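Sanity check. The docking grid for zinc ion depends on where the pocket ends up, so I'm generating a full predicted complex first rather than guessing from homology. Inputs follow.
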Amino acid sequence: MSNEPHADHEHHHADPSIPAEAAPAPPPRPRVGCARCGYDIAGMRIGEPCPECGTMIQQFPSDSRGNSGMAITSMVLGIVSILGCAFYGILSIIAGPLAIWFGVKAKRAVREGRAAQSSAGMATAGFVCGIIGTTIGAAYLLFMIVFVGFAFFAASQSGGPQFVPTP
Ligand SMILES: [Zn+2]
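Predicted complex below; grid placement will be based on this.
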């Protein structure tokens, strides 16, 4: 039976004065993905086709995701402002100006290179829909105010039961 006393003497004390593995970690490279398929296109230039799906690289979408959200918001609000005139036009005159506001901001972001070029169309659509929706909503609301106001006026003149037209 062999005794191995030397194993008991191998004490490894961690010396606190020596920093362990102080090599600076390289900053993680931001992942640049194709706008269509998400293929890693880091290192490629704008105008080159994506090697995976062939989509032309228009812009490195490093921080464009949040800014193209403004264009989507503008377009959704613009559509809501047009459809929303069913509710006395009130929804239209709220969503319409917001759509215009977001559309202007989104277009400016595209112009200054802070948003993807592909979001410019949505920003324009939201802007135009916002103008249409605001106009329709304002006209509809004005019409309803005049119509209801006239109905109240007529009812008060005749002294009969009050008649409020349903839209
Ligand atoms: Zn691709």
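Relevant for the grid: The longest helix spans residues 120-158.
Also worth noting: Residues 64-158 form one domain.
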